[in-house]
Amino acid sequence: MSLHCPETSETSGFVNAALLATMKPGALLVNTARGGLVCEVSLGAALRSGTLGGAAVDVVRQEPMAADCPLLGAPNCLITPHIAWASEPARRRLLATSVDNLRQFIAGHPVNVVSG
What is the pTM of this model? Predict the structure, then answer.
């Protein structure tokens, strides 16, 4: 299961013990969306019991991650520091846009101006 949705009142914590129990044994969970979508206690328990084959999370409910996060030390759990968006091509585009914006500003032609 790969999560790609916003966290709303309807989706907060929707990946819980009940949902994880419906997944096939050995299934994988990937969350690059929002940490609050997942009940970390339930996910940690599913990983520790072997119900779930593994998880890869780029986001957690509390960032920076709390020392007592249930995912820390869970088997087959890969945790990255909220950098899923930061592929090399994405970082290159960000840098090029920033440099271009600065050049335009210095030339007296600012872009992406926010006023209000």
Answer: 0.76
Q: How many domains does the chain have?
A: 2
Instruction: Kindly state whether residues 76 and 51 are assigned to the same domain.
Output: yes
Residues involved in catalysis: 34, 63, 82
Q: How many CB atoms lie within 10 A of CB 16?
A: 15
> What is the rounded CA–CA span in Å between residue 43 and residue 71?
7
Evaluate whether 71 touches 57 at the Cβ level (below 8 Å): yes
Fill in the amino acid letter for 34. R
Question: What domain range is 23 assigned to?
Answer: 2-84
Q: What is the pLDDT of residue 116?
A: 56
